[in-house]
Structure formats: structure tokens, C-alpha cells
Amino acid sequence: MTTEKLRQLLVVEDDPALQKQIRWSFDQYNVLLAGDRESALSQIRRHTPAVVTMDLGLPPDADSVSEGFKLLEQIMATAPDTKIIVLTGQNEQANALRAIALGAYDFFVKPFDPEILNLTVERAFRFYDLQQENRRLQAMQQPDVLGTLITRDPEMLRICRTIEKVAPTSATVLLLGESGTGKELLARGVHNASPRRDTRFIAINCAAIPENLLESELFGYEKGAFSGAAKTTLGKIEMANKGTLMLDEIGDLPLALQSKLLRFLQERVIERVGGRQEIPIDVRVVCATHQDLKTLIREGRFREDLYYRLAEIVIMIPPLRDRIGDAALLAHALVRRFASEQNRSSLSLSEEAVHAISAYPWPGNVRELENCLKRATIMAEGNSLSVQDVGLDDAFEENAMPLDLRTIRDTAERKAIIAAVSRSNGNLARAADLLGISRPTLYDLMHKFGLKT
Ligand SMILES: Nc1ncnc2c1ncn2[C@@H]1O[C@H](COP(=O)(O)OP(=O)(O)OP(=O)(O)O)[C@@H](O)[C@H]1O
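The line above is the sequence of Fis family transcriptional regulator; the predicted C-alpha cells follow.
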């Protein structure tokens, strides 16, 4: 069967003799037939054919064109990409023009010449394909979270999809993950995939600014608010107006400022330090921390009500060591980037270096890997980066390699399970088959290793 044969063409025609004739003329397509408006619509809903030929005179009032036009409008509303070729009688130019105005692709005067109608149908299919391809290319050009983020890990890819889904909303996103896992990169991803992408993305690290300066850094201050306040200065929240504000290390925000931030999130207005005027602000807030906020709440160091304001969407970013294959993938990409920055495009990683990178636990995550490879590409003498060049010969021996067999076994089992589940696309029965274990055993192991089913 050729692929053309698989293409579906819907023919809407109430005259059985004509139906037969049309079906013969189009034996290269899978012809779907409909004798009235209702059955035509049900075929459209079920098969979404790319091309439809239709007679305007349909029962129950085959002598008028009202049913035909009604159907044309309904198809355009349900499946606007459909290419509809309207068959009209002689001297029905007005109907033909009205059909085109309503969105029909072309019209054809009966009695038709099968060969010419065939050419028109073929052209309609081609036009439909081109339009679809165009749309696909356009979608690829939309900024997406994956634009700068390198990963092949199923959990990270799921996170990217989540971010793409929540980005267009104004929901507050809380990114949790160890240092260097890419929290800021993902926060920028939220911004770039949102309608605010052409406005400002402002990030502030709450842990890096001394407590006494943080308030004016966030909320701004009026001239004369304190000694040294020589002129009115905008805070980061106001600077991010209409854009996105990233509050990094939110777990380090002092309690007094937590109350002030909560008030801002509830009322969406700020008052500059020393000011008395309420300024309305429209920002999308993204927060991040490497700390366990639930523990901070239990210890009375983080306000629970603020947590719930911030945690509208919570995203847990896995550490690099838990991402399948990502360390090697990132390493290759980073070496390519640094090598080209240093005009050393022939530089690449040796096989042993890739092994060592894959096995090392990267406590500093992607940032540590980045630093390590930047240094290696600067320092390396030859064209192939060795284990020594990436500085993992000692580290690997001393730190990375666990010595107790239970840890080694658990790590290997966990990796194999993640690989099998991702290879079987989440189908656990198939994953169990690949692993050579029963499904209940797979469930038990996933539970043991804290993997979500
Ligand atoms: N998946 C990734 N692909 C490419 N680059 C990445 C990826 N993840 C992180 N990076 C890069 O690693 C570095 C650290 O990432 P980022 O600053 O986003 O991490 P972070 O979690 O915000 O760190 P911290 O908590 O220490 O502020 C950045 O240079 C970032 O561009």
C-alpha cells in the first residue's frame, strides 16, 4: 500500500451514482463517503481528512444550497485547516464565490472531468501539507525552555514540559534543587516561554545581600529615607514591573522581610523605604532555593503562609548525578563550547575522561562540571582531554567510588530501572520485561529508590 493510498479524502454527495463515480476516480485515496451534513461532520470529527469535496445541495433539502453552506461553515469551525472543494451546478457562480468567501479552498462546476478534479484534489493535499509543515517550523522557532538547557534525562525533560505549560500563566513557580543544578537557567526558561519574554527578567540573590540592605534592594527607597539616600532609587521588584522577578535563595530571606514580601504578593503593591505612596506592580515571581523550606518552617525560620503563596507550582530539579547520561552529554557540549571560544575546535574528550565524568557524583552539579571543563580546555596541551586534564584521576579514586557493595548494587539497580522505564516510555510491564523481573518487584524497587511510578 502506498502512502498516498492512506490519505483520506471525504466525499460529501447524496446521489449514489455520483458517489460511485467519484470513488472510482479517486482510487489512489482512502475515500470516505457521506450522504448528508450529519454524517459528513461525524467523518470529519473521526478522521479529520485533509481534503473534502462536497455538493452544496444536500438532503433534507437537496434542491437548495442551505445545507451545503451550513456544512461548509461547520467544517471551517471544527477543522479550519481542511481544504474544501465545492462542486456547484452550471451558472452558480454566486454560490461558488460565496463558498470561497466562507473559506472553501476551490470550486468545481458539474459535470466534472475526473482528471481535472483529480489534479485539484492533489494540489489541495499538497497545499495542506505545506501549511502543516510551515506551522511545525514556526512552532520550532518559538522560544522554548529547552533552547539553552542540555538534557536527555526523562525527569528533566518532564520538567521542561511542565515549565512550558505553566509559563504562559502568571502562577508563582518555586524551583527546588541543589546548588548549580540550573535553577536560574530554568527561571529564565519560565520567563522566555511566557508572554513577558520581551520585558525584563530581574534576579536577586537573597543570600548574597546583607540583611540591612536587602529591604531597600528589593523595595527601593525615597530620597532622604536614610543617611546616604541621595536620590530616589527603584528596588528590584519595581524594576521587574511587567516582567519576571527571580528571588534566588528565598530560604535566606529574613523573617521581617518575609512579612513584607507576603504583603506584596497578596496586594501587589509596594511602598519604597521612606515612602508613603503605594505603587502597583505587575510581576511574575519565580523563587528558588537549595534549602528544605518545610524544615525551615518547622524550625520557625520560614513563614508557612508565605510558603503557600510561593509554592503554586513546585519543581524539584534532580542533582546531576541522578540524571541519566546527562554528565557525558553536557561534558561534550561544554567542551565544544569552550574549545570554540578558545579557537581550539579540534579539542575533544578522551573515552576515559568521559567514563570518569559519568561516574563522578558532581556535588557542585552543572556549575562544577562547567568550571572543571573550562579549566581543562585552557590547560590541556594535546587535542584529547585526559582524565588527568579534567582533574578526576584522584577525585575519582578517592571520593567517587563507593566501597561498600550494597551502595554499589543499589546505585546500579536504580540506574538500570530508570533506563528501562525511560526506554519503555513509562510502560512498567515492558520495563519489568527488559529488566527480567516481575512487575510487583519493579514496583517494590521503585518504591525503595524513591522513583515515581
Ligand atoms: N542543563 C543545563 N544545560 C546547560 N547548561 C546548564 C544546565 N544546567 C545548568 N547549566 C549552567 O550551569 C551553570 C549553573 O546553573 P544555574 O546558575 O542556573 O544554577 P543554580 O541552580 O541557579 O545555582 P545556584 O543555586 O548556585 O545559584 C550556569 O552557567 C548554567 O548556564
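Note on the example: The pocket of adenosine-5'-triphosphate is lined by residues 149-151, 177, 179-185, 248, 290, 330, 366-367, 370 (CB under 6 Å). The chain has four domains: 3-140, 146-318, 321-400, 405-448.
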